[in-house]
Amino acid sequence: MITQSKVLSARFGKPDSCALSGYREDGGYVTYLDTLKTGQPDELVATVKESGLKGRGGAGFSTGMKWSFVPKGTDKPIYLCVNGDESEPGTFKDRQIIEHDPHQLLEGVGITCFAIKSHTAYIYLRCEFAEGIRKVQAAIDEAYAAGLFGKNIDGSGFDLDVYVATGAGAYICGEETSLLNSIEGIRPYPRNKPPFPAVEGLFGCPTIINNIETIANIPHIVKNGAAWHAGLGSKDDPGTRLWCVSGHVNKPGVFEIETGFSLQELIDGPCGGVRDGKLLKAVIPGGSSSRVLTVDEVARTNMDATSMREIGSSLGSAGIIVLDETTDMVDAVLNLMKFYAHESCGQCTPCREGTPWVVKVLERIMSGSGRTEDLALLVDIADNMEGRTVCALADGACWPLVSIVEKFRHEFEAKIGAPVGAGS
Amino acid sequence: MITLTIDGRQVEVAPGTTVLEAAAEMGIEIPHYCYHPDIGVDGNCRMCLVQVGENTRKLPISCMTPCGDGMDVKTDSPAVVKARKGVLEFLLINHPLDCTICDQAGECPLQDYTYRFGPGDSRFVEHKNKKPKKVEFSDKVMFDAERCILCTRCVRFFTEKRDSKPLGIRNMGGKNEITLAPEGPIEDPYQMNIIDICPVGALTSRDFRFQQRVWFMDFADTVCPGCSRGCNITAGSYQNKLLRFVPRRNPDVNSSWMCDDGRLSYKQYDLAERTRGARVYGETVDLPAAYDKVAELVGDGSGVGVLASTRQTNEELYALKNWATSAGITSLWHGTATWVADDFLKQADATPNTAGATALGYEPAPAAPSGLRGLIVSGEVDVPAALLAGLDFLVLQAPVGGALGAAAVVVLPGRTPVEKKGVWVNADGLAQQVRPAISAGPDVPEDWTLWRDMAGAAWPTLKHLQDEMAAAGTAAPETAASTASES
Questions:
Q1: Are A319 and A333 found together in one domain?
Q2: Which residue of B46, B58, B169 is in closest CB contact with A349?
Q3: Model-level pTM?
Q4: What's the ipTM?
Q5: To bridge A319 with a disulfide, which of A66, A91, A218, A334 should be the other Cys (CB 3.0-4.6 Å)?
Q6: Best of A352, A363, A395 to disrupt the B interface by mutation (most B CBs within 10 Å)?
Q7: Which member of A189, A349, A386 has the closest CB to residue B87?
Q8: pLDDT at position B483
Q9: Domain range B127-210, CATH architecture
Q10: Closest residue by Cα to residue A240 from A82, A7, A63, A61
């Protein structure tokens, strides 16, 4: 049985869930103001480290560890950038937070800035989140008016300014260094690393970039303690996550569940099973940039980092895309690859040239002009892209591509006209 | 110092050295497109990737990877060889492969690396991308977006070296395209440098394109005659006709750059009419007869001045001075020519060897000379009117006669800066070798031999003259280090 645990989503759906008054009635900003008075930055970083919180953007890096990379005693300003570019296909969780409980995010921003000794935070939102942008800005305005942001907050001596920065909707701007370039107003090509943003980020200054959901977790961890968070869900990747289920299920949506549950049970339980009583064919478990799972793999997989690593995929951004038996996997992967080709920034040769090439080959197969050698070609194009570029966009294209070609080879072969099973 | 291993050989480098630089020091060429030693690292082409340790999945780019102690780098492991082939294949799938009509052919790193490291054939059977061709970036530069590999060297030349942004990138992904800024055509006086650093035929010179295949051309490594910076250049010619100057890398002088004015100054050396042999009062005579006439005119040398061009080499100036001294002439002057200097390379002194002339004892010509009855002019020089007033005679030794030649009693032949060999000293005191790019043709002996023969000096060859200069302590040091041009 899947149990939903409402932590981040506890206030979703409440009347006026976006209003400061309601948030404070529910105990909001108490942790933040206590932190400003009595908190110690180093202790906060240690707490978040001990909590086991991992970044919710997709890469799953330890949040506390990331915070600790800010150089000690730097004389430059330190920035916090909150990544709300949310553009991974199948992912729509950050949108829930900003549209339903923006003050939860802002409290996290305040505590995080205190912990990393930052006095300026940018919340980067894609422009398509028009409603979310309005709500976050309104919440920031309310917070300033209430003296929660600004100079000498609540007499603590701590100053904090929070800004909304908007992007034009490019997927690449969710890559953290592209995001920095976007805020700086230059072409959002991902930056080469090192230097890492924690050392040299926004405007050349130490910068921490965290996903919206990651930051929203911070008030709860500081309020309830590291041990509380570390005890939620699976040990290696604890906490709750906002799982986004889309595709061929009867009840798609966002479900907050502790890590470590059975994927099959999620589909059969809260999601109401596969649409129209059809059979399951495949699941893309962690946003489109993760390796596809077959029916067998879904049945034996738990949603935690270790299980996913064992099966060769990842939790990514928790975007679970369910595909039923009617899905044409060639068409599905073509659809995905069009996305990556369209969203490649074009900086690195392999991705700029490779992603559109893959699309052309898949389109040819779809049009009935596929050749037997095309399958090996697709896998080899992917081999020449993966790990050969500045950022992970090409990797993210290769993982679903290769896994779908390998696991659903017969569907490609049927389109090409080769005997099913030949050469597989 | 940091010790690491590259292709099994141990090497010590200074901290901060990149793997690409360390390999280059060892003579290992790591192919690259977007990296350029004078505009730095960008990391977009992915051509220079290498294997570090045993990780064959994530291959770092050597242009950005600093050397680390104990690092084990492989530049030709199976993983690197395959990845490099892959990158070249990616670069070529949408490239028009129009080498047969492309001006870059023959000096194209895309062509060269494809031969050396490429896949040999293509697995690409789809339609290639269509992009704009024949885009006029300016009156000097033409752009072909289909040939472009988007290394952004051109964009970065302006941002890094010129603090300007006439070029940028538009669109996304496979549709990426270098584009002019909305302000319009490039106006930068150094813009033609982007043609040289473009590693493919995307940027071509509107002056040079379609003129000649580079493999049919002759090249001379020499120095730009345009100003006292002394930018190192390679002069290219075909059948004894100059077709272009391009900069030759020298970190001590001009890095990889030169100004467009200097670059296009090659055209002035295509002489429709020139001096050949000797003339006295407009009549062609043989050289010894002309020498006799000069000796007769000069007499004991009193009241005679010498005005030398600062485009003449040290050797020519030395030989001229040697003759003048033997003829009793004590007034040794040099001409001047100026243009507007800038804060990049261009010097106000628009001649290449003022420093050399000064070191040899030539002084600026006086504004109002007194008692001047005769003037010997050597080389291309603007002669101040004050020097010409009231002269009994004028002797001109120069490649072009013109009005001055018509007024001269004796006209002797001369070579242009692209026809001679010797040394110029630039404004920073650096002596550099000048080498002939084209031949002056018949009856135009080397300038220094005229003055040798008039003075009866014993220098069978230029080397003898240079040895004498060295012994006299007047020789400038040998040419400073200059490296092969970096493309």
A1: no
A2: B46
A3: 0.93
A4: 0.93
A5: A91
A6: A352
A7: A349
A8: 42
A9: 2-Layer Sandwich (3.30)
A10: A7
